[in-house]
């Protein structure tokens, strides 16, 4: 069943209400999926899932009527922690893949980060275009993976701006390959064991060019914990996905067991 997101800032969706899909989602349902009147889709509004029927088309927009609140539980769909992935700037297809796959793995926010050894640079015009493009990718991936929320793509930050904004996070981690070369692979597991449900994590990754020693020193001075992601050196586009997968495996199982009293 197809899923689409509905934007309503001032109130929640209710059964019996009529809603319109966005232009892009309408095109997808009507033209790509060849939706017909009476077809049932799943829609999400403010983290709540509903079932709705396609009842009309108005000026190219799909009109849906909500007929049931779904049994989907956002707390069981989303990660039990809120993870912001901050990445140096990699080539277009790589950073787009990171956003797509990280959305599927439960990322809450994506923070583009300007670092010394980035292989590409974004000027102000390009930065806005890239942010918009990445937001569309996150939106589509969230629909496909049946997320309750669409990850937010944040405006690009410099290293200083990121460090200044990092104080709100309970956990600040930096993936650093030199830790892997030293064989200290238990650090990441230790960090996960110290994480509680509902906490916010800022996890930073370099681009293809890696991190400079000066940047690493700045992260350490700001209280970031350096960790390895295992004995193998991962590509820039692989490391965030690996990390999110590990977070999901380690924390979702533990927190579910704790909630059901089986641990």
TrEMBL record:
Keywords: Cytoplasm, Methyltransferase, rRNA processing, S-adenosyl-L-methionine, Transferase. One of its GO terms (molecular function) is methyltransferase activity. It comes from the Bacteria. It catalyses: uridine(1498) in 16S rRNA + S-adenosyl-L-methionine = N(3)-methyluridine(1498) in 16S rRNA + S-adenosyl-L-homocysteine + H(+). Its EC number is 2.1.1.193. It is found in: Cytoplasm. Its main location: cytoplasm. It is an enzyme of class 2 (transferase). Residues 78-248 form the Ribosomal RNA small subunit methyltransferase E methyltransferase domain. The keyword rRNA processing applies. One of its GO terms (biological process) is methylation. SUPFAM superfamilies: alpha/beta knot, PUA domain-like. Belongs to the RNA methyltransferase RsmE family. NCBIfam families: PRK11713.1-4, RsmE family RNA methyltransferase. Specifically methylates the N3 position of the uracil ring of uridine 1498 (m3U1498) in 16S rRNA. Acts on the fully assembled 30S ribosomal subunit. This is Ribosomal RNA small subunit methyltransferase E.
């Amino acid at each position: 069943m197809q899923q689409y997101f509905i934007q309503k800032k001032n109130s929640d969706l209710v059964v019996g209400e009529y809603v319109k899909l966005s232009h892009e989602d309408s095109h997808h349902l009507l033209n790509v999926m060849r939706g017909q009147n009476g077809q049932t889709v799943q829609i999400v509004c403010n983290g709540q899932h509903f079932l709705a029927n396609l009842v009309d088309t108005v000026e190219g927009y799909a009109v849906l009527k909500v007929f049931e609140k779904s049994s989907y539980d956002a707390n069981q769909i989303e990660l039990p922690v809120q993870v912001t992935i901050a990445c140096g700037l990699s080539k277009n297809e790589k950073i787009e893949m990171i956003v797509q796959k990280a959305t599927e793995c439960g990322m809450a926010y994506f923070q583009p980060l300007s670092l010394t050894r980035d292989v590409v640079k974004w000027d102000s015009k390009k930065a806005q275009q890239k942010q918009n493009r990445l937001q569309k990718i996150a939106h589509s991936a969230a629909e496909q993976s049946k997320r309750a929320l669409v990850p937010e793509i944040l405006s690009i930050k410099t290293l200083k701006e990121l460090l200044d904004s990092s104080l709100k996070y309970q956990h600040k981690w930096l993936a650093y390959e030199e830790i892997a070369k030293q064989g200290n692979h238990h650090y990441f597991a230790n960090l996960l064991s110290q994480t509680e449900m509902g906490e916010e994590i800022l996890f930073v990754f370099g681009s293809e060019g890696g991190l400079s020693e000066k940047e690493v020193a700045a992260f350490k001075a700001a209280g970031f914990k350096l960790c390895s992601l295992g004995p193998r050196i991962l590509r820039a586009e692989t490391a965030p996905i690996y990390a999110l997968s590990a977070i999901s495996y380690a924390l979702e199982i533990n927190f579910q067991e704790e909630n059901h009293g089986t641990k």
